[in-house]
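Bug #77: duplicate submission created two jobs. Keeping one. Sequence:
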Amino acid sequence: MFTKFTFIAGVELLQADGKLGKIITLGTVLDLVLFWGLLKLNKEFMARGVILAVITLTLITLLV
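Kept job's structure:
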């Protein structure tokens, strides 16, 4: 949308520059805020889904 690179090329570029871990960390911090909010609202299953999504996306990103 804002770049001429494909998603895969962008991930590879971030990995080559050593910035991929920082991007994953920033995304994880936001997800932890959502996780905390869901726990405060007693939405345990939704909070579990957030954690599962974070783990899945991280593994996919690192393996691609």
